[in-house]
Amino acid sequence: MERILVIGSSGQIGSELILTLRKMYGNENVIGTGRKTAPSQAVLESGPFEFFDAVNKNDLYDACRKYDINIIINMAAILSGNGEKNPMLAWDVNMNGLLNVLEIAREMKMKQVLVPSSIAVFGPGTPLDRAPQETVLKPTTMYGLTKVAGELLGDYYVKKYGLDVRGLRYPGIISHETLPGGGTTDYAVAVYFEAVKNKKYDCFVKEDTRLPMMYMPDCIKATIDLMQADFSKLKHHCDFNVGAMSFSVKEIADSIKKRIPEFEITYNPDFRQAIADSWPNDVDDTAARMEWGWKPSFDLEAMTDDMLNAITEKHKKGII
After folding, report:
1. From CA 161, how far away is CA 14, in angstroms rounded?
2. What letters, b where the CB count within 10 A reaches 16 and e where it falls short, cover 28-42?
3. What confidence tens digit (pLDDT) does each residue in 120-147 have?
4. Which one of 117, 139, 155, 297 has the lowest number of neighbouring Cβ atoms within 10 Å?
């Protein structure tokens, strides 16, 4: 029986991933954790949840023993925007928390650890068009630096200890369930909420900024597909590129305007523009498609329909 600990299950991805996992494996077999942010009612009411900081190894150990955990999914991270405001906190959470996870998994002989990476690993020297699976990794942010180190550390535990560690480089993730959490690609979420609520949005990057993106249902699918893949067929482990779609801010705005003609967007780039400019326009995810059958379902137009419908319903109900 799988006993899964989802660290960071109050965050954008974790809060939706844990609900899907509970449907698959049973509510009592998927345990959520958070450091400070309270989880959604759905997460809190559907199964066990513990408050602790993964940087505290003793607390993490206690939770793993209490629930007899054999799989850890570590979603806890300080993202790129917030990480540049507090780089030492980003290092502490992203690296020391990860090292605790890997060491406990090794010591307890766990079945698997899944630790997502990000397109933030890329930087100057990486080809901007369809960034290769194997390429230059020289990130310009502390978040990106910790993700490169995390990929290497995970691969080290695979080779050194035979621990099954897996990871995928998330592009920007777009969802209507959770508000932005301090990342550079947050504009691709905020623009939809603001379009519904205020019919206008002031964007913190330029209109021609183009980055790889993914809708949350595809993000959850990719995560679980990799989690369930046959380990013996994986040539890579902690650094899979995963793609879905790529578009500029203007293309998002135009897609929204087709459905909300009065929507207006302005542009006032801030420090996150330089971060976005250091990342590629798209990624080559051939390895993920070949090794574990990755295939996305949503494009921009399908995502815009779904996002606006869901956010409009929430707005009518006064939820947002």
Report:
1. 27
2. ebbbbbbbeeebbee
3. 999 999 999 999 999 999 999 999 999 9
4. 297
Asked whether 265 and 191 are in contact (CB, 8 A), the reply is yes
Q: What pLDDT digit, counting tens, does each position of 88-122 carry?
A: 999 999 999 999 999 999 999 999 999 999 999 99
Strand partners, 33: 7, 50
Angle at 144 between CA 213 and CA 194, to 5 degrees: 40
Q: Which residue has the tokens 């925007």?
A: 81
Task: Report the catalytic residues.
Answer: 143
SS (H, E, C) 142-191: HHHHHHHHHHHHHHHHHHHHCCCEECEEECEEECCCCCCCCCHHHHHHHH
Q: Which residue segments constitute the domains of the chain, with CATH numbers given?
A: 4-123+132-171+218-241 (3.40.50.720), 174-214+244-316 (3.90.25.10)
Q: Which helix (H) or strand (E) holds 51?
A: strand 49-51
Q: Token pair of 64, please? A: 């793993």
Q: pTM for the complete prediction?
A: 0.95
Q: Which two tokens stand for residue 231?
A: 């380990």
Residue recorded with tokens 């993914």: 214
Residues 247-257 pLDDT 10s: 999 999 999 99
